[in-house]
Specification:
Layout: H1 3-19, E1 26-28, E2 40-50, E3 53-65, E4 71-82, E5 88-91, H2 97-110, H3 112-119
Antiparallel strand pairs: 1-2, 2-3, 3-4, 4-5
Helix pairs in contact: 1-2
Amino acid sequence: MREENRDFKAVTRLLELTQEGLLKWESRGPCDDILEGRDIVVDIVYVAAKDKRLLRLYQFRYKSWLDDVNWHWEEDIALELSDEKRVTWWRFPENRVLQDLLEAVKFRTVGVDQFLDELLGQ
């Protein structure tokens, strides 16, 4: 199995587990260890435990320099395996499913289902 396909399948599986409520995520403020330089901005880090490993998922903005003076902000998503000391062991390669995973994690951690049920009186 090609490595890219394997990474894609792994992230897809995490998405499925999240959507089914079998993988629980919690939100945390930005972790200082992620902010390697002043050119990176992280607002929220989502953390989940899976098979005795810690997963960290976050969206970040970074400066993309056009030349020596001009720059603009770019955005990306990172999914990492780390330890309890927040040391990153490995980062998943860029993957189109990461955006879906991030949206599912936000949906679950904010409690959108419960809110809608309460709002609609169900």
